[in-house]
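Ticket opened by: R.M.
Priority: normal
Category: complex prediction / small molecule

The reporter submitted a protein together with pyridoxal-5'-phosphate and asked that the result be attached to this ticket for the collaborator who will pick it up next week. Submitted input follows.
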Amino acid sequence: MTTPHVRAVIDLGALARNVSVLKSRVGSPALMAVVKAGGYGHGLVESGRAAIAGGAQWLATALLQEALSLRASGIQAPILAWLYTADDQFAECIDKNIDLAVNSVASLSSIADAAESMNRTARIHIKVDTGLGRNGIMLADLPELLRELNIRAVAGHVTVIGIMSHFAYADQPSNNTIAMQIDNFMKAVDLTEAAGFELEVKHLSNSAATLGLPHTYFNLVRPGVAIYGISPGGEVGDAHDYELTPVMSLRSSIALLKDVPAGTGLSYAHQYYTDVDTQVALIPAGYADGVPRAATNKGPVLVGGEIRTIAGRVCMDQFVLDVGGLDVALGDEVVLFGDPARGEPSVELWAEAADTISYEIITRIGPRVAREFINAPW
Ligand SMILES: Cc1ncc(COP(=O)(O)O)c(C=O)c1O
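Result attached by the on-call engineer:
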């Protein structure tokens, strides 16, 4: 059997533990694990199952197709999806008891019409824009939506399960938009309840809020990145400080070792020159695998027991390390990122090296990278 050129090793036991750590942190509110974008690159269904094993009562995706894939895998837990196009798979979702977020009178009409034509009732969460300025209905437009919801609820086309919103600045706990968004959220809750709707769940807290803003929990939290053992960044601090363990490690191996003289230019456009006679290692992982090209001369890699920085350009399929002075052999494993507790570079370090956020590093792992699932808690 050949070894894949790059492996993403996914520790599902760590994912389940992270969920249970977060659950202990929040206490009685329920936890909705966000597994959109293929479980943030960790595997959609595997992440969903591990989150449930860790105690998550709900799952969430952005896209309807992902919610349907979770359901098709046999997951029975409630699932919410919040991002769709005008003619999306509403009927399929209603048929599979997938909750849908409503962000406008127009989206309510599409969803309610689909439910009516099937003689079914769609499960709805009202998605309010409390200040993020993205998806969700503006507070000023909520009364009109509530009137339409009332008509559709009485007709049996929809039932309102919950209300939700999303923060703009949860990773900056002192930012004054947080109080403003909480205030707007409470206004939306009051308006909805005054219109006669009983809200089973009210949810506002992403990872940063789940870790740092307990007054935003209401009765359900909705973390994503933290369940994968990664800090949302900003002022939140290290994942390790919250007893969260990175779930994914990205591993490759040395595909070629060669001696080169001082003054050798390495990789395209010679962005790195060896300053002494040295040995270089070729690593078969490139931007097609999700290694950001922006990490040229910056990305940290554990090799031969030390962290070395990528030498020269990251190419489509490969990059080079200067391994001078290290005791390494052809085929030795190298680790791009993983658990700092094992001496591996963190995803957060890679994000810094590539001038981006951790979310982008993990969700951009390419399709040809082999996912290897370990420690499944089932
Ligand atoms: C609506 C919504 N809720 C929750 C999350 C989870 O956010 P995080 O991964 O920062 O916890 C996201 C992710 O972007 C989101 O869009």
